[in-house]
Amino acid sequence: MSSRVRVGIIGAGAAGTSVLDTLTPDRVDVTVFDGGPGFGPGRAYRPGSTAALVNLPASKMSLRPENPRHFADWLGEGQPEFVSRELYGDYLTEVFEKAAGRTAATTISEDVVAIERHADGYVVFTERARFAFDAIFLCVGNAGPADVYNLSGTAAFVPDPYPLSELTLPTEASVTVVGAGLSAVDAVLELERRGHKGRIRVVSRSGYLPGVRDTASTVVLQRADGGRVKGLAGSLRLLDLHRILAEEFVAQGIQLADLWREFRADERPAERLRRQLQQVQAGDPALPTFLTVAGLLLESQAWQLFDDTTRTVFLQRWHGLVSTLCAPMPVATAERLVALLDTGLLRISGGLTAIRPHHSGYTVTTTQGDFETSYVVNTVRPQPVHLPRRAADLLTSLTAAGLVTSHPLGGLRLDVETCAAAPGLYVLGELAGGELYVETTVLTAITHRVRQAVHHLLGGLPKGTS
């Protein structure tokens, strides 16, 4: 390998931008590939809407872990604690452009279709050209929704709510948003911003929206300890995590009933949202304590300490509920949703079993009965996630060539300490989902992994520059 390292970055969303921003300019020659509409913001941060908010406060949205205030300082004074996704996209765009200038990066507005390993590195293929590199970072970004109800091609089906600027539906039409995660919340808020007057219903198997984030409370853990988790390496079970969580609730003086309530799944979805909002507004410690313990488990790499069987059981039985608590929405967002519930414009339903198209719309079947809707907006993201088509094709080429090994829970097998799936081939984002679980969607975890990977490649931890 020459003194200057030829680096290819595939994907230019948040993860790819973080890689570019972290690389040491005088040691690399960089090329960035992305066939999307721009470099910097991923699919959820495109321009066009100020309605949808990021679900983390600005103090936790820095792309530079060594400078936690980088984003907050970029914003300046007078900005709200939670900003719009569009504004965060502006930040990503600016960081990308400055990093590209600093590193003299070449940008290629094409998708990568194949990668080959050669004696002196890798060759990357687009539809029109080939490029040689010493190392590659795969940052393919988040997958769009999965069409689990086979509605593609029907007249009133919206396969993906993003970009929100294109979510233009007749204002009087009935709209059903399928899926109940943060993307569903974004879709509802965008429809509200556009003055939608027809009935909006959010429906999924559980009906449970993301929890509500408490940024006013600070939790100091009393019993939960990362060393204890790591000490169970080789024998860690779901029951161990349950025990750690329960012991922390007791130590904090929180009734265990408040913990069990989050996992019983017997509340009506709208009642659950109202209750969680009221808890946060009243300063109840249950939800922030759960989130703090979950953060500790993430830092302790609990997911990596499970075997694949335990991971599979967790994904099948607990992922849905846990994800609602670990990716909560801002209070302001919850208040807007409750206001829509109060007016009757919004309804939230669980028990979804089927959606059938017909000549004038769709029949939606739930365990509570059927209802009709004119439009369906899809936000479903099953586990394991369905990769974007470009990523799926690329994964096929990599595995067929024997360069990497598929993970049974999605994506690729990789070294969790370096994010390397093969020598010089680093994986971040959805393709790391099987090994890293929610780390592929948590910004601070992604930027931490980026620095590990860059450090492994260059042999020294580079410092971000302005």
Index terms:
466 residues; alpha/beta; FAD/NAD(P)-binding domain; 6-stranded mixed β-sheet; 5-stranded parallel β-sheet; 17 strands; 36% helix; disordered C terminus; FAD/NAD-bd_sf; L-asp_N-monooxygenase_NS-form
Explain this structure to me?
InterPro entries: FAD/NAD-bd_sf (IPR036188), HpyO/CreE_NAD-binding (IPR038732), L-asp_N-monooxygenase_NS-form (IPR052189). Residues 9-142 form the FAD-dependent urate hydroxylase HpyO/Asp monooxygenase CreE-like FAD/NAD(P)-binding domain. This is FAD-dependent urate hydroxylase HpyO/Asp monooxygenase CreE-like FAD/NAD(P)-binding domain-containing protein. By secondary structure, this protein is α/β, with parallel strands linked by helices. The chain folds into 3 domains: 5-143 and 385-458, FAD/NAD(P)-binding domain; 157-210 and 330-378, FAD/NAD(P)-binding domain (3-Layer(bba) Sandwich); 226-326, no CATH class. 36% of the residues lie in helices and 16% in strands. It has helices at residues 14-22, 70-75, 85-103, 182-193, 226-230, 238-251, 256-264, 269-281, 286-299, 302-305, 308-317, 319-326, 331-343, 389-400, 433-436, 443-458, and strands at residues 5-10, 28-33, 106-108, 114-118, 121-125, 130-133, 135-138, 157-158, 175-178, 200-203, 346-349, 352-358, 361-366, 369-373, 375-378, 420-422, 425-427. Strands 3-2-1-7-17-16 form a 6-stranded mixed sheet, with helices on one face. The protein has a 5-stranded parallel sheet with strand order 8-15-9-10-11. It has a 3-stranded antiparallel sheet with strand order 4-5-6. β12 and β13 (361-366) form a beta hairpin. The two termini are 29 Å apart.
